Amino acid sequence: MIDQITESLLRNAGQFDVHKWSDYPKIKAVTEALFGEIVAHRKSKNPKSRIAKPEQLRKHLRVLLIDLYVASKSANPWQGISKHKPDYLEKSRYRKIYLTYDLLIPLINDLVEIGYVDQEIGFKDRITSRGYRTRVKASSSLIEFIEADKYGVKTLTKAVGITGIVIDNPEAERETIVLRDADKRPLDYEDTPATNWMRDNLRIINARLTSAEISLRISDDQWGELNARS
């Protein structure tokens, strides 16, 4: 039975953000160590198993690791993620940000089985009867793993801040439709024909703006005034 506080956190979970990335060697080291545990876990279940697309799997793991770790330092550590395969098909929202179902979902399942991720499978809110996607968050074991002294991540985050370890993922297309709560925190949502239409329109508008040359016809005095305001 989920208590009311947890249910509120689940209901207001953030949206899994594939745009978070980090090139810090310390983050890479944690990812590689965790990747080794996942390989060992899969081998323990099936000694003959082989890791398909290991480099892509590492990228998925680093994105997942960073997002869950950053979320763990916020007021609400839960993140919404779809485990519905059609959401990862060609032209879908998740696929456009390079995630693949066959890599991400087994990866999440591995981390849940190992005890590094807490998960609440898609559920219905008992108050509103609204259905929600699966929620995941870093477990205390995962936080302990990441912040182990040998990796130096805890020292790094103290030095640069939790957001200081994060950069934009160069391989992911930035989401243009973001739902936020009253406190401006991003919320998870399911795409509809309307959100897909809005996203496609924004993509066209942004492409036109990117290719446009914008100039100002102003005097030198006006230019000076404009610079003084900036």
Report on this structure:
This protein has 230 residues and is of the alpha+beta class. It has one domain. Helices cover 48% and strands 11% of the residues. It is built from 9 helices and 10 strands. It has a 4-stranded mixed β-sheet. The protein has a two-stranded antiparallel ribbon with strand order 2-8. Strands 5-6 form a two-stranded antiparallel ribbon. Helix 2 crosses helix 3.
Task: Describe the structure using short key phrases.
two-stranded antiparallel sheet; 4-stranded mixed beta sheet; 48% helix; alpha+beta; 9 helices; 230 residues
Q: End-to-end span in angstroms?
A: 54 Å
Structurally, the number of domains stands at 1
Low-confidence stretches: none
Helix content: 40-55%
Q: How much of the polypeptide forms β-strand, as a percent range?
A: 5-15%
Biggest pleated-sheet summary: 4 strands, mixed
Order of helices and strands: HEEHHEHHEEEEHHEEEHH
Average pLDDT number: 84
SS-derived structural category: alpha+beta
Described by the principal axes of the CA atoms, the overall outline is: globular
Number of discrete helical segments:
9
C-alpha Rg, in Å?
A: 21 Å
Strand order of the largest sheet: 1-3-7-4
Number of E strands? 10
Give me the secondary-structure topology.
Elements: H1 4-11, E1 14-15, E2 20-21, H2 25-45, H3 54-72, E3 79-81, H4 93-96, H5 101-114, E4 117-120, E5 123-124, E6 131-132, E7 134-138, H6 140-146, H7 153-160, E8 167-168, E9 179-180, E10 186-187, H8 193-211, H9 220-229
Parallel strand pairs: 1-3
Antiparallel strand pairs: 2-8, 3-7, 4-7, 5-6, 9-10
Helix pairs in contact: 2-3
